[in-house]
Amino acid sequence: MLFIHDPRPRRKSHVRGAWIFGAICGYRATNHHCGEVTIRKACPISAHSSETELREQGAVFMPRFDSAGLVTAVAVDHASGALLMLAHMDAEAIAKTRQTGFAHFHSRSRGRLWMKGESSGHVLKVIEIRVDCDQDALELRVEPAGPACHTLAPSCFYRRIEDDGSLARIEDA
Amino acid sequence: MLFIHDPRPRRKSHVRGAWIFGAICGYRATNHHCGEVTIRKACPISAHSSETELREQGAVFMPRFDSAGLVTAVAVDHASGALLMLAHMDAEAIAKTRQTGFAHFHSRSRGRLWMKGESSGHVLKVIEIRVDCDQDALELRVEPAGPACHTLAPSCFYRRIEDDGSLARIEDA
């Protein structure tokens, strides 16, 4: 385990800050000794902490939405690992997905929440949600109830670019 | 094979249009008989053709760039199928990737082309490029030369969301 020595004098507010951060991020604050401070490096209140470090290494889910309030979401077949589809989620879609266990997205063209498969029945049961380093993309590990693509292909990624620049259908996609 | 009957009268320009479309999309135009027209359903000049059909079912690579000139690109380990990272590509990045065989992206923060691994050496050798149904997303099937994430994790998706909403590190990611 790595430790960082912080020579800052003991201040009550800092101790309280340590407790609050500890509570938020899920790290126990019992190892923080201010004055002569010994802090776990992974803890977001280390002397070198920053929002970037917290976002990349922390235990707090803090999605980085774009100017339209969206993150990119990639659905992957949990069993086969196949890339199925790509869509976008806002805070509402993330909440609804976590609440129901079925993938919900935000339709940019229709400007509304939609559940994948709401009309076709080809829903995506969410097994696990992963987040990337800077928290602007999500990986939904899913169990698809049918073809993931609206074209009825198992995956939306059913063509590859050939050497001559044309597209060719992939047999198993 | 499915055929579509087109009752439109024979016009020389239509014949020429058929030939041009056939040449662009890679379908042979020899089956187009105008006047009493017999056309392969898959051909983009069918009576029911549209840009959507051409984009979704055609053999022409016509990426649908957003207002910033970008498509989303997802890098997947060709051997393991693991989702590695997500970035963006403009026309220049796509061209450079196809030309060199190594993944290039467009950095939105730096506003410039970059080759993944240009400083770390952790390049992504591109085995295959796939495109999704509406051609606004690409799947790069790659062979990574090292950790795909700048944090030195093998994949950028190294944390999952737990039931209590906190993030937990995934052992094998």
Structural write-up:
The structure is a homodimer of 173-residue chains. Chain A starts with a strand and ends with a strand. The relative contact order of chain A is 0.13. Chain A folds into two domains: 3-57, no CATH class; 71-161, Ubiquitin-like (UB roll) (Roll). The first copy, chain A, is an alpha+beta fold. A four-stranded mixed sheet of chain A has the order 4-3-8-7, covered by helices on one side. In chain A, 18% of the residues lie in helices and 30% in strands. At the A-B interface, β3, β4, β7 and β9 of A face β3, β4, β7 and β9 of B. β7 of chain A pairs antiparallel with β9 (159-161) of chain B, so a sheet runs across the interface.
Strand order in the sheet with the most strands of chain A:
4-3-8-7
Outline of chain A, from the CA principal axes?
Answer: globular
* Succession of helices and strands of chain A: EHEHEEHEEEEEE
Could you give the distance between the termini of chain A? Answer: 45 Å
**CATH H-level superfamily title of the largest domain in chain A:** Phosphoribosyl-AMP cyclohydrolase
Q: How does CATH name the architecture of the largest domain in chain A?
A: Roll
Oligomer: homodimer
Residue-averaged pLDDT of chain A: 79
